[in-house]
Design brief:
Layout (H helix, E strand, L loop, with lengths): L4 E14 L1 H6 L21 E12 L5 E6 L16 H18 L6 H8 L12 H19 L3 H9 L11 E2 L7 H9 L4 E4 L5 H4 L4 H17 L7 E5 L3 H5 L3 H15 L4 E4 L7 H18 L4 E4 L6 H9 L5 E5 H4 L2 H14 L2 E5 L6 H14 L3 E3 L7 H23 L2
Parallel strand pairs: 4-11, 5-6, 6-7, 7-8, 8-9, 9-10, 10-11
Antiparallel strand pairs: 1-2, 2-3
Length: 416
């Protein structure tokens, strides 16, 4: 079966895009004002509204399959593709991709996804932007599910030989703003399995010698104890975007600081994402592996999550092979095709390394729902709430989509 028509629509993403290099190099950064010049190619200002291109495949059965082309907040950083500017990619979609879409058989997803990932001769043997590959494969996966009259999760299980989908929702890391205590209380009330993410992007965010971060970790742990429903024992996760490595360049000193954070987080488990952002992937792997080994020697129970420089399927394989971290974040827009994220989760399982099937607050409701189905099929250790950093909305979209997928699969199985 082939699509009858294809439409492309430019719209808004779930958050914004930001020039990470400019922020990190700025001696003082005010997130509410554009007071520093951009450093990363494509940025007109340090913070810009995010864009998407929705791809709509009109199917012969009357259904419409949708996927959203979208990138992450910190586009162009740490080997990522450049900032996604929708107007630059719309002509390519219309002239090059649309004719191919109208000719492809959508009854099978995986073979179409492989084609999307390859170089295109019409583009001088270059690949499509990762955001475009992401949106294209979302739409193709949704189309295959509609044609097969299965859930997206069931299509993935069928094509990858994974058996049945998960029978309960995968844990979700609810991403909260650092300065929104009411939001934190709501997420505690809703018993999110993990919280609060709470981005610390600039060294000023963590305070002198990390004192602000230390106080914040302590405050979150105490707030959970004060407000937690009975039996609620979440894991705490904080994304520090390399700021700790900037303040504590010596591995031993950084490990000692993480030991102090560990005490502030008790009685909850503690995960730290991107404690270091190095100058290259190889150095990043080396430094994170060294930090992890140091933590083990000192008996400090803090789990490390990789993000920057861990962007593609090959990157994830390299981090996993080196046993450099406890978890990798699989940022789905960075990997491009949805099939790449599926393969990444399965590779992590095979290597015995944890993984977060993540992405970005900059994503959309469409991409988040497809992520929920990928999670049901592949069973990562946890998800990152998306879109946005409202936490409530992302938690709702992902949780409800997983619950619906589980219910539909159970109903189909009971009718066999």
């Amino acid at each position: 079966m082939k699509p009858m028509d294809v439409q492309f629509v430019i719209g808004l993403s779930g958050y914004f895009v930001k020039d990470l290099e400019a922020v990190r190099r700025s001696p003082a950064y005010d997130p509410l004002s554009d007071n520093i010049p951009p450093r990363t190619s494509g940025f007109r200002s340090v913070v810009q509204a995010g864009q998407v291109i929705s791809i709509m495949l009109h199917l012969p059965c009357g259904e419409i399959a949708v996927g959203d082309c979208v990138d992450v907040i910190f586009s162009g950083a740490a080997s990522r593709d450049s900032l996604f500017i929708a107007e630059e990619h719309l002509p390519i979609l219309e002239a090059v991709v649309k004719p191919w879409l109208l000719s492809c058989d959508i009854s099978n997803f995986r073979q179409n996804a492989r084609r999307v990932d390859l170089p295109w001769k019409e583009l001088r043997n270059c690949r499509l932007h990762s955001a475009v590959r992401y949106g294209l494969t979302q739409a193709l996966l949704a189309a295959t599910a509609l044609v097969q009259r299965r859930t997206i999760a069931e299509v993935i299980c069928r094509e990858w030989g994974l058996g049945s989908i998960a029978d309960r929702p995968v844990d979700i890391l609810a991403s909260c703003h650092r300065n929104d205590t009411l939001q934190l209380d709501r997420i505690i009330m809703k018993k999110a399995p993990m919280l609060p993410h709470a981005s610390f992007v600039h060294v000023s965010d963590i305070g002198p010698q990390g004192t602000v971060l230390m106080d914040y970790v302590n405050a979150v742990a105490r707030r959970i104890q004060e407000r937690a429903p009975p039996g609620y024992h979440p894991r705490l996760h904080f994304d520090v975007y390399g700021t700790l490595g900037d303040v504590f360049p010596e591995t031993t000193n950084l490990a000692d600081f993480l030991g102090q954070l560990r005490e502030r987080a008790r009685p909850y488990a503690l995960l730290i994402e991107s404690p270091i952002i190095a100058s290259s992937k190889s150095v990043q792997i080396q430094q994170l592996a060294g930090l992890r080994a140091c933590l083990k020697r000192k008996g400090i129970d803090v789990q490390i999550v990789a993000d920057e420089w861990c962007n593609t399927l090959q990157d994830i394989r390299d981090f996993a092979d080196a046993d450099a971290v406890d978890y990798v974040q699989i940022k789905m827009p960075d990997l491009g095709g949805v099939d790449q994220s599926i393969d990444a989760v399965l590779y992590c399982h095979g290597k015995g390394i944890g993984c977060c099937l993540g992405g970005s607050a900059n994503e959309t409701d469409v991409s988040a729902r497809i992520t929920a189905h990928v999670a049901l099929a592949t069973r990562p250790d946890f998800l990152l709430s998306k879109p946005g950093i409202g936490a409530d909305e992302g938690l709702m979209i992902l949780t409800n989509e997983m619950l619906r997928g589980i219910a539909l699969a159970k109903r189909a199985h009971s009718r066999l």
